[in-house]
Structure formats: C-alpha cells, structure tokens
Fold this sequence. Notes:
Layout: E1 11-18, E2 21-33, E3 39-43, E4 49-50, H1 57-66, H2 73-79, H3 87-98, H4 117-125, H5 138-150, H6 164-177, E5 182-185, E6 191-196, H7 197-209, H8 213-224, H9 226-229, H10 235-243, E7 246-250, E8 254-258, E9 264-269, H11 277-287, H12 293-303, H13 310-314, E10 315-319
Antiparallel strand pairs: 1-2, 1-10, 2-3, 2-9, 4-6, 5-6, 7-8, 8-9
Amino acid sequence: MPHPIDISDCTELIRITRNNVIESRHFGIALVIDPAGELILSLGNPQALVFPRSALKPFQAIGSLRAGATLSDEGTALACASHLGSLRHQGLALQILESAGLSEADLRCPTAWPGDSATREAMNREGRGRNRLAFNCSGKHAAFLNAAQSSGLPTSTYLCPEHPVQLSASKAMEEFCGPLSFIGVDGCGAPAPQMSLISLAQGFRRLALSNDPHARQVVRAIREHPWAIRGEGSANTLTIERTGILAKLGAEGVLAMASPDGYSVAVKMLDGSSRGTDVLALNLLASVGALNSEDHRWLESKLSPPASTPGAQAAGLELAGSDF
C-alpha cells in the first residue's frame, strides 16, 4: 500500500564531494517511465506518497482553462510557472487579472520580493516594496481568478477546495495523475494534493502525449514561452528551450520532466534539497535514450558551470545511476 515518504523508501541519489571525499549525501526517490507507461527505472519506492507542490501547476492550469479562464499562450505558461518575479513576469500576471476586470488586490497569494536579484534591486531603488505579483505562484493565482470571474463565480473564495475552479483543477489532476490521497494547503494558500511519485510521472507522460485541447494549449505554451516557467538562465527554462522537454520543479526537492516522445522522470529528495536534481533527472532521461548526447552535454555544461575558485574546484557532484 502507498504510504507517506520516509527514509525506508529512499536511496542515496546525490553525493557532494570535496577533494574526492564525500561531504554530503542526499537521499530520495527517482524513477523513469516509458511512453507506454511502464516503469523502466526505479531508485527507491515509486509508490511512496509525496506532495508534488508546484510540479502540479500544469494540471491546475488545465483546470483553470476548463473552468473558463481566457488565457493567451504566454498567460497559460505563466499559470504553470514558479517564476522569479521579473518585471516581465509581474506584468504578465497583471495582464491576466486585468483582462478579467481584476487587479493585484484580488490575489490571495502572499506578498514577496522577486527571486530575480536584478528586479529586486531595481524595485528597491525605486522605493517599491514586496507585492503579490512578484510571488512565484502569482500566475497560477491570476489564472484561478480569471476563470472564476469569467464564469461568474465568487473571486474572494477562489482558494477554497470546494470552489468550482479548485474542483476543476482537482479533476484535471486526477485525470492525468490518478487518485489524490490527501489535500493539504500549499505555501501560496492553494490546495496541495498528495499522490505517489509514480503518479506524478504518469501525469507528465500523459500530458506530453495528450490530444486534449486544454492539455495541448498548456504543452504548447510551455514550449513556446519557456522564459515564463521560471526565468532566463534557470534550469527549467534552459531545459525546455533546448529540448522541448516539459520540466517543472516543485518545492521541497520535487522535479518532473517529460520528453516530447513520452518518457517521463520524477524526483523527490527526502531532505527537500533541490541541488543536483536537474542534472540527475537529465542523466536518467539520457540513460534510457530519451535525451540525445549533444543536448545532454550542453545542458550539463550550463547547469554545472566551471569552478572559478580553489574551493569550488575541490567540490564535486556524484549522481546515482551514473557515478555510483
């Protein structure tokens, strides 16, 4: 029977070394599913229950579209995003709201400083404070609100699990991923479903291969506007730009990817760390032939920049499935 993740479900996935001596170890679960839905690689227990957190945003975006949200492709991409809060991200979130006659004041996500340092510094110089548009989930929230307003539904309660927009999101998640075992509350205030890690991977596989019009809109939007998903130079954005692989991080060490031909990978780190997870996931896809060597080498070079100091040169990254 599936059960919440614990150490007995996990295996060592990532080692950090210093002068070739192990300094830190990260344990977790990783798996790969082929286009037919067969589990072809498993490190740890794929049935353990996890909170995928923001990795579920593409399915929540499908729910918003089905509930009546009117979104451009850029807006659809932002609905899937855990963005860095650049002015471009903030402006797009505001556009989604204003197109439905709403404003930042209608958002129920927390206020935040942008994750993008240049934007944060610019806002400080201009005397602007933290705001809700800069919060990394503002696109998802704006899409929820757009759906509610467009369908004549209450906007003040759009985060309640019983709200029709949230019910639409839950239905989409169950359609693509399977049963939801528990519904908690995410850091942004939205419902946070729990499911097995293999369910998350199956969801991404189905998303990549789906002919559903709303799913196709989400996939197209992610691939055509990868800057919106995270931010220029970030791992998710670079992966999508280079390969067309759907890549989406989630809080607490979650990552899911799906190749255009339907291979999917999902990772959950027990300690919540995300360091090395992108390189690990890409290595696993490459190991089953779902990522060609040229793209793999290019992404590794971008995600593992050359060490510039003696201390950095002494550090190393070892990944399960390749180096041990």
